[in-house]
Amino acid sequence: MKTVIPVDLPQNQYDIKIATDGLQYLGAWLSAIGKSGKVLLVSNPVIFKHYGDTAIESLKAAGFDVCQCILPAGERYKTLRSIEKIHDVAFTNRLERSSTMVALGGGVIGDMTGFAAATSLRGIAVVQVPTSLLAMVDASMGGKTGVNHPQGKNLIGAFHQPSLVLIDPNVLATLPGREFRAGMAEVIKYGIIWNEDLFDQLEQAQRLDQMRYVGQALLHDILKHSCQAKADVVSQDEKEAGLRAILNYGHTIGHAVESLTGYKLVNHGEAVGIGMVAAGAIATAMDLWPQTATDRQLAIIQKTNLPTKLPENLNINDILPTLRSDKKVKAGKVRFVLPKRIGAAFVTDQVTDDIIRSVLEEMF
After folding, report:
1. 268 is annotated as an active-site residue
2. What is residue 332's predicted lDDT score, i.e. its pLDDT?
3. Bridge partners, 15 (sequence order)
4. 17, 78, 85, 251: which is the annotated catalytic residue?
5. Which of 35, 78, 255, 335 is catalytic?
6. Of 176, 40, 160, 193, which is closest to residue 104 (Cα–Cα)?
7. Which residue, 9, 22, 58, 116, is the most exposed by fewest CB within 10 angstroms?
């Protein structure tokens, strides 16, 4: 199966290719979009062990001069020190402005490679080859790149659109179950904020907690609908001046949970799941959508076997100040993405501390 989804931006048009066995054609597709010369492949040890050889062989067969940078796996390594390591390899191998960086990995590798490309020689091309479900449906598209800071997640970064996003569903065969569930959190997000049909498909599925229960047909629909939703939103608002902010549904409290647990206890998708539960409850508390909709959302999150409660060691008095350091704060007010119906959401800064506190207390 193969699907091509264009991301139509005024100056940065590119395609998202969803193709079974697509990794074997990485080099050919880079050549087809006019790339040549040197390529720096960035990955982590686990992903490189499984797919590095295939990617490098494809690139070399297409005439590319390939070097590599292997970084440790994990959110805690998403730092400026890792960016420096990528730069070191790039400069040692004399990458030029016409060169390309290829991110082979999950969201962490994609974010770091994109930021390194944005800041190398004032900007060189980057191609995203996501290997996790979360990266396939979210992180690899849209041009957001960056690293974390002790004060919060993704506070240092830049918008740098990829030249191509290549999604090969076959690489999910080696994805751990926990990481698959993390990706499903972002899929559920798209159903809530943009695509009611996708939400209905997820609601009808018997199980969503492991890939083998999802099946190839539903998996392809999940990838296609999620990528199309992201492409639709990004095409209308490339740099989050308005509409694109709805893609942060579940992320406001989710990022606080990640930060306060040191990026070790819960992963990004699990934190987003918790954040969506909170956002749905906040919307109900503010009479913005009915309890039945909150219950339907909760049922899908539970079906995916994602956490729906806050970690026991968190303190509400720590969460509230952390929310105010989020990059989505505007004029000192925390902005929440809240649902108004299945398939539509909006941004508001009218959520009071009392409502947040009340909802969070119910989530311990």
Report:
1. yes
2. 75
3. 6, 164
4. 251
5. 255
6. 40
7. 9
For residues 167 and 218, state if they share a domain. no
Q: Is 107 labelled as part of a ligand binding site?
A: yes
Average model confidence (pLDDT) across the chain: 95
Residue showing tokens 């229960």: 213
- Do the annotations mark residue 149 as ligand-binding? no
Q: How much is the pLDDT for 162? A: 97
State both tokens at 277: 């539960």
Same domain, 153 and 238: no
Q: Residue 122 catalytic? A: yes
Catalytic pick among 17, 78, 144, 189: 144
149 classed as catalytic: no
Q: Which residues pair with 341 in a beta bridge?
A: 344
Q: Is 248 a catalytic residue?
A: yes
User: Is residue 131 annotated as involved in ligand binding?
Assistant: yes
Answer positive or negative: Cα dihedral of 286, 233, 104, 99.
Answer: negative
Token pair recorded at residue 91: 């400069």
186 has catalytic annotation: yes
244 carries an active-site annotation: yes
Nearest to residue 11, comparing CAs of 177, 178, 143, 153? 143
pLDDT confidence tier of residue 327, bands split at 50, 70 and 90: low
Q: How many domains does the chain have?
A: 2
309 is in an annotated binding site: no
Question: Is 144 labeled as ligand-binding?
Answer: yes
Residues 38 and 159 in one domain: yes
Would you say the pTM of this structure is higher than 0.90?
Answer: yes
pLDDT digits (tens, 9 = 90+) for 148-195: 988 878 889 999 999 999 999 999 999 999 999 999 999 999 999 999
Q: Look up residue 162 and give its amino acid.
A: P
Residue 347 annotated in ligand binding? no
| 100-129 pLDDT tens trace | 999 999 999 999 999 999 999 999 999 999
Residues 161 and 285 in one domain: no
**What would the DSSP string read from start to end of 194-235?**
T-HHHHHHHHH-S--SSHHHH-HHHHHHHHHHHHHHHHHHHH
38: annotated active-site residue? no
Q: Which residues pair with 40 in a beta bridge?
A: 67, 101
The C-alpha atoms of residue 40 and residue 275 are separated, in whole angstroms, by: 36
153 and 190, same domain (yes or no)? no
d(C-alpha 160, C-alpha 170), whole Å? 27
